[in-house]
Q: What sequence folds into this?
């Protein structure tokens, strides 16, 4: 029969729940009553306990790393969202400033064109006074010249509005 000491844990295929590595070391080193089979079982439990302890340490380290990486990922997502919002605001401000400058430029060009056209019409009306035509025909032509000016001004305003709407639609899409 096998001789076992009272301090010896019961050998089994798995490590008992209460068994600690500190409990097995003295048994392996100091117990002269262990026969070969019992010693092998205790050694097997000892290595199994060491393996499970290392495995638990590794899993704990991995979990700590996973949580750290998850936290870093959350911080990165927040930073990316913040930077995206910052860039969107910058783009919106620059776009608004550009459109204001462009709109001002277009409006000024439109007004310059109307002023040039008005000067040309005035010169035409002045030349009309020197022509040898009846007064009622002269007045009819003057009225038509004023109508043409208003029609050109209205059409130019429509074209400018269309261009600005198209530009806004393209940049907004």
A:
């Amino acid at each position: 029969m096998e001789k076992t000491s009272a301090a010896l844990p019961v050998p089994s295929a798995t490590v008992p729940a209460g068994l600690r590595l500190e409990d097995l070391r003295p048994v392996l080193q100091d117990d002269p009553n262990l026969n070969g089979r019992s010693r092998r079982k205790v050694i097997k439990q000892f290595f199994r306990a060491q393996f499970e302890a290392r495995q638990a340490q590794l899993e704990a380290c991995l979990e700590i790393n996973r949580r750290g990486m998850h936290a870093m990922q959350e911080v990165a997502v927040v930073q990316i969202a913040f930077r995206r919002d910052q860039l969107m605001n910058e783009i919106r401000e620059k776009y608004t400033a550009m459109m204001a400058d462009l709109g001002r430029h277009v409006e000024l060009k439109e007004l310059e064109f109307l002023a040039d056209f008005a000067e040309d019409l005035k010169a035409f009306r002045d030349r009309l006074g020197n022509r040898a035509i009846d007064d009622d025909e002269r007045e009819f032509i003057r009225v038509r010249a004023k109508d043409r000016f208003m029609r050109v001004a209205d059409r130019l305003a429509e074209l400018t509005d269309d261009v600005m709407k198209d530009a806004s639609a393209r940049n907004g899409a």
About this structure: The radius of gyration is 48 Å.
